[in-house]
Write a structure and sequence with these properties.
This protein is mostly helical. Helices cover 69% and strands 2% of the residues. It contains 20 helices and two strands. The model is unreliable at 1-5, 64-70, 191-195 and 330-335 (pLDDT under 50). Pfam families: FliG_C, FliG_M, FliG_N.
């Protein structure tokens, strides 16, 4: 984009949020409804770089330093994932990102960056190891590790060896790689794809949107039909990410009721936004010690993390029912 006049109002807002950064952008997105967030997310995903004149025309009144930059490089995948997760939580962010991906027309490796590791692995597992290695070298390290873990065991060492041996890749080869992804890998992904609808998680989200009395009555009726399913739904109504909705005073009250050992394990598998929410409500010394412990601790089983998080949320739920904190779940649920 070279002409600022060519930018729509939504494009201009997208540039402004990109310039402000993830934290402030997330705070703005929290104030938008679903339709506005969708439109703005699509605009963000369509941007690649913005020249100095455009930035100056949009944000000069907010930040003089931006006027002196030639362009703002934008990693749309990381930025959108982090901003949306901060704004609406990890699960809703995934849904929004999938819709944005379809409308923004992302292709090739860029399209794969937006996808779940399981989908990428399903699309790659029948490809030549060299193709897989090239793709993996362009993915974010965490995503690449997840994909590698999901590939057939016989493929893993070969792919990793090829990644380690990669050096410079000609521009033409990147174009050919994107063609292979579009013609073969995406076809494999689409063939293996299925759309998840409903389920206990969806039922839990719906119950959280109801008035407390109505939700409790419905859950009791489900218990009369399928007690195990009702228990799963009830567990999903209060999950660790919901701590983002709790005010600082509520977090401080919660911290007084749980052990540091349990919190340490729970934070090991928590989103960064949740970690920061909790750490900022601890004393400076306690927060520093917790950060040090998190950095130095060894691998923790996922089951142990989930158990610790569930135990903490059970405490939070009891406190919410007693009026000691507000989990902030829409019009109903536990408040």
């Amino acid at each position: 984009m070279s002409d600022s006049a060519a930018l729509t109002g939504t494009d201009s807002v997208a540039v402004l949020l990109m310039a402000l950064g993830e934290e402030y952008a997330a705070e703005v997105l929290k104030q938008l409804d679903a339709r506005e967030m969708h439109r703005l997310g699509t605009a963000m995903a369509s941007l690649h770089s913005v020249d100095r004149e455009q930035v100056a025309g949009i944000v000069a009144q907010f930040n003089d330093e931006l006027v002196n930059q030639n362009q703002i490089p934008i990693d749309t995948h990381d930025f959108m994932k982090n901003v949306l997760t901060r704004a609406v939580g990890r699960d809703k962010a995934k849904t929004v990102m999938e819709r944005i991906l379809n409308e923004a027309g992302a292709t090739g490796v860029e399209a794969l960056k937006w996808m779940e590791a399981a989908a990428v692995a399903a699309g790659l597992k029948r490809e030549h190891p060299q193709i897989i290695a090239l793709v993996m070298s362009y993915l974010e390290a965490g995503q690449a590790a997840e994909v590698l873990n999901l590939l057939p065991e016989a493929l893993r060492h070969d792919v990793l060896l090829r990644v380690a041996r990669l050096d410079a890749v000609p521009t033409a080869a990147i174009g050919e790689l994107n063609e292979v992804i579009e013609k073969q890998v995406m076809r494999n992904i689409n063939a293996a794809a299925s759309f998840r609808v409903g389920g206990p998680k969806r039922a839990a989200e719906m119950l959280n949107g109801l008035d407390t009395g109505v939700g409790a009555t419905l859950l009791d009726k489900i218990k009369g039909v399928d007690e195990e399913l009702a228990t799963r739904i009830e567990d999903l109504m209060v999950v660790f990410d919901h701590l983002l909705n709790v005010d600082d005073r509520g977090i401080q009250n919660l911290l007084r009721e749980i052990s540091s050992e349990n919190l340490l394990v729970a934070l090991r598998g928590a989103d960064d936004a949740v970690k920061e929410k909790i750490l900022k409500n601890m004393s400076k010394r306690a927060a520093e010690m917790m950060r040090d412990d998190l950095e130095s601790m060894g691998p923790v089983r996922l089951a142990d993390v989930e158990a610790a998080q569930k135990e903490i949320m059970n405490v939070a739920k009891r406190m919410a029912e007693a009026g000691d904190l507000n989990l902030g779940q829409g019009g109903g649920g536990y408040v």
